[in-house]
Amino acid sequence: MVESIRALVRKTFEKLSEEVKYGGILFTSGIQFCGVFSYKEYVTVEFGSGAKITGPLGFLKGSGKGRRHIKLRSVAQIKEKNLAVYLSLALRAAEQED
């Protein structure tokens, strides 16, 4: 599942770098905007500026000051939960913080 997410991120952003940190993979496209973290039963895609993401999709979870995440339990949920849309929104939200 992590490799499928990485492939989607690479496909979505022309300018991209990855860094292994905090037990996951962090993605940067001019600014760090998300990370993917693998657990035994699921994978989360974390958005450091996720609280600034608004929209009708409703898949973001979390109630902290800034961070939000999407929990994925299968490769099919990458598409079902519109991860590609959230990736672009996450980059825009991170750029607003800068």
Describe it.
There is one protein chain. 32% of the residues lie in helices and 28% in strands. It is an alpha+beta fold and 98 residues long. The protein has one domain (2-97): Aspartate Aminotransferase, domain 1, CATH 3.90.1150. Strands 1-2-3-4-5 form a five-stranded antiparallel beta sheet. A hairpin with a 3-residue loop joins strand 2 and strand 3 (32-38). The chain is globular and about 30 Å long. The model has no long low-confidence stretch (mean pLDDT 93). Pfam families: DUF1801 (PF08818). Residues 2-90 form the YdhG-like domain. InterPro entries: YdhG-like.
General form = globular
Evaluate the radius of gyration. 12 Å
Named at the architecture level, the CATH assignment is: Alpha-Beta Complex
- Which regions contain 5 or more consecutive residues with pLDDT less than 50? none
Tell me about the biggest sheet? 5 strands, antiparallel
Looking across the biggest beta sheet, what order are the strands in? Answer: 1-2-3-4-5
InterPro entries: YdhG-like (IPR014922)
Protein name: DUF1801 domain-containing protein
Domain YdhG-like: 2-90
Organism: Pseudomonas schmalbachii
